[in-house]
Amino acid sequence: MLIVSLIATLSYACATWLLQCDSGRRMVVVASMLLAALAHALAVVAVFQGWMHNVSVTNMLSLVSLGMALLGTVRYLFCRDRIAYPVVALMAAVCVWAPIGVSLPATLAEGWALKTHIVLSIAAYMSLAFAALYALFLLLQDYRLRRGRDGFHLSVSLNDLSLSMIGFTRLGEGLLTLSLVTGAFFIHDIWAQRVGHKLFFGVIAWTIIGIVLLLHKLQGFRGRLAALWVLGGFLCLVLAYFGSAFVLQILLHE
Question: Which positions of the chain have pLDDT values less than 50?
């Protein structure tokens, strides 16, 4: 487990370094990305104790970071996107150690229906995380252009960043809708099951993202203000799962 996690971390770092150096060794970069993903996947399988059997917050954090690294790899391969992978790879290089660094009691997920809901939730989170990432890139690029700063530069236009942000926002909103609908079937007593906070922040995130998409469709809503709204919606989604799970599992040990 330790060796596999170390291989994943070193491979993520190597791929990121090669991308930043712009060495032109595309095959070496891709090989490093795939090796990192493979090692990380082996680490995830080990801690899940089967097909998503133990869904503690640290295990889920490692799984989500793996999914985002894979998505970053796909975007590099097929969209020539060089800006997203370094960020998600460095996050994955840290998160792969979460199950090892923090030992938590097993949080069991039983039944395919519940696991389907969890998969939809993960997919929604990943999509909106990428939307938030491109929103951050958009804000940074916009700041540089407005202030005339040369210290930070992205070789991507504001229009392309905006299109990527809106595209992932649409995908994330659709998946989040399915996640909320399927999750409703497992709620019998909101307070006894301690899911009130998850439901509250999840609905708030869904509403904020929905408003962004509606305004974009009706009025062409985009740019800095749209990016800030997307970041706000994503923050609510973070609080819906990882915030509440952190408090319950790590601070309260429940």
Answer: 192, 250-252
